[in-house]
Amino acid sequence: MKPISRAVRAAVAAGRTAASGPVHPYHPAEYEIHDPGEVGELLAAWPQDCGPGGSDDCTCSGHDGRVTLYEAGGQSVRAVDLSRAKPLARLLAPAAAEGIPARHRARWARAAPPRLREYAAAMARAEEPGHPGVPAALVFSWLGAPRARGTDAASVLAVEAPMRLLAAEPTDELAWAVRETDRGGLDGAVRFFASEAFTTRHPKRRRVPDTARDLLLRHARSHRPADLPVLERRLLRAPGDRVRRS
């Protein structure tokens, strides 16, 4: 049996019940914990005797979620069902203000661009945010920002928050923003235009001027090839490159 002190990372699989309390609307089904302090909290709350005979790998029929610890080499150290570890369940409760998932969401909100932080903070708290009134080009950059190592408990928000803003914009505004955004923003733009938030629009609202369409296809071809077939099929040509700014 490997000592849990060797653990440097934890993988959390969310359960299918709400036994640990309310579930945050943007809580992921699976996420990881890498912060050494947070891993230390998990180790401190880890049950000393889990299941009959003090089994090293606790399994049961509960559906409250599961935590698996990993050492630096990627090998599993220990795993436990949260129904057998109430202190861990409280620490990992999706909507608990002092829980680890709430901290991940708060960190993500603080890292948002200044003009989007209030909006991000409201979504992190599961509140209805007001529209921040920022250019779509900035939102593309936010969506396309490089992700931190692993996938934390804010991973769903990192996609849903910018997608929600972009989905509310008319296609002409989005097409112009493709021209104005940066390289990282093009990655976010490709991700948005290949998503259901755009591809389920009425065909008339999927017509994109050639300049923006070519930028999206070129970036997808070089950096997001898996999205290319969707873009080629769903991005329709506008009658002319008619998007203008005075």
Topology:
Blueprint: E1 9-14, E2 30-33, H1 36-45, E3 65-70, E4 76-81, H2 86-91, H3 100-110, H4 117-124, H5 136-144, H6 155-167, H7 171-180, H8 183-193, H9 196-199, E5 207-208, H10 210-223, H11 228-234, E6 236-237
3D architecture notes:
By secondary structure, the chain is of the alpha+beta class. It is 42% helix and 11% strand. The chain is built from 11 helices and 6 strands. The chain has helices at 36-45, 86-91, 100-110, 117-124, 136-144, 155-167, 171-180, 183-193, 196-199, 210-223, 228-234; strands at 9-14, 30-33, 65-70, 76-81, 207-208, 236-237. A 4-stranded antiparallel beta sheet has the order 2-1-3-4. Strands 5-6 form a two-stranded parallel ribbon. A hairpin with a 5-residue loop joins β3 and β4 (76-81). α7 (171-180) crosses α10 (210-223). It is elongated and about 70 Å long. The chain starts with 8 loop residues before the first strand and ends in a 9-residue tail after the last strand. The model is unreliable at 51-62 (pLDDT under 50).
Keywords:
246 residues; elongated; two-stranded parallel ribbon; 42% helix
Which sequence of strands runs across the widest sheet?
2-1-3-4
Low-confidence stretches: 51-62
Helical segment count: 11
Helix content: 40-55%
For the largest beta-sheet, the strand count, sense and barrel status come to: 4 strands, antiparallel
Overall, the morphology is elongated
Order of helices and strands: EEHEEHHHHHHHHEHHE
How many beta-strand runs? 6
Mean pLDDT over the residues: 88
